[in-house]
Design brief:
With 281 residues, the protein is an alpha/beta fold. It has three domains: 152 residues, P-loop containing nucleotide triphosphate hydrolases (Rossmann fold, 3-Layer(aba) Sandwich); 39 residues; 46 residues. It has a five-stranded parallel beta sheet. Helix 7 links the parallel strand 8 and strand 9. The longest helix is centred in the middle third of the chain and has 19 residues.
Length: 281
């Protein structure tokens, strides 16, 4: 796969060079936003970025997949992909998920606890009475899960904080338009603010999608953004003839019908034969 990426990749040198600058220069921005319509090669660019990062730590998450439904799943996914770090504390917190917990209640004049515990007007944990002064509840209860998420996030940031600027970890998020509301909130209110605050100096982040987060001017020192355009004619010719070794006489049709879309260009190349291209004439 790495060889395929190297051979067939064309016309994203500016973006790759900027990522290399981010990696080499600790003073460069730490977050890169890549916005483009469907078919413009966002995922292909992220694959090349992973390959280009060499042996340094890399984590990749497609935000439309099941392992990105909430921050807990997201953290689990990233920790599995970066074995270079010590995830012991994170793993211990993850092990608590799915377990049941027991609270011992001490209320004057009561021997039987309620079947729920209320924390103000809107926060409540429901559970089943075990007996006496105990109540049992699951880690899936919203308030418990919220607390575990907070603990897990703190541990996650501590682990990432150990990465060094001269050998940074690269974390890539694809398909941002498919993120859940929980993941969006975690990214914008928990994870990325640590990048801005400088506590994760050894972490680079790339977010790609049909839409990307919007940041105000207070983020200008840490965030850069770009929009991917279609592949120009010269790059299509290079891809078709030099990279894919396809007949040069078909290039005109590849240029015309791909419209500069890397996705369409690749599909046409995959299906190219003299007879199929002739049918487009």
């Amino acid at each position: 796969m790495a060889e395929l990426i190297e051979v067939e990749f064309v016309n994203r040198d500016a973006e790759l060079n900027y990522l290399r600058k981010m990696r080499a220069d600790p003073q460069a921005t730490r977050i890169l936003l890549i916005k483009a319509p469907t078919g413009m090669g966002k995922s292909w660019l992220l694959s090349r970025a992973r390959h280009d990062h060499g042996n340094l730590p890399v984590g990749f998450v497609h935000l439309g997949q099941h392992f990105a439904l909430d921050p807990i799943a997201l953290i689990r996914r990233l920790s599995e992909q970066m074995p270079e770090a010590n995830w012991e504390v994170v793993d211990k917190i993850l092990e608590q998920l799915g377990k049941n917990y027991t609270i011992t209640l001490r209320r004057e004049g009561q021997t039987q606890p309620p079947a729920s515990i209320e924390f103000g007007d809107h926060n409540r944990i429901d559970g089943d009475v075990v007996g006496g002064d105990k109540i049992i509840f699951s880690a899936d209860e919203p308030l418990v899960r919220e607390q575990l998420t907070a603990e897990l996030s703190e541990a996650f940031m501590t682990v990432l904080g150990a990465f060094q600027p001269h050998e940074p970890a690269l974390i890539l998020f694809d398909a941002y338009e498919q993120r859940t509301s929980d993941v969006e909130k975690w990214l914008l209110e928990t994870f990325l603010p640590h990048i801005r605050a400088g506590t994760l100096r050894g972490v680079l982040v790339v977010i790609a999608g049909r839409d990307v987060p919007q940041f105000d001017r207070n983020w200008r020192l840490v965030v850069s953004s770009t929009e991917l355009a279609g592949i120009p004619t010269a790059a299509i010719r290079e891809y078709w003839v030099q990279r894919r070794k396809l007949p040069e006489e078909e290039v005109t049709y590849a240029i015309k019908f791909s419209g500069g879309s890397p996705q369409l260009m690749a599909l046409m190349a995959d299906n190219s034969t003299s007879s199929s291209m002739a049918s487009l004439r």
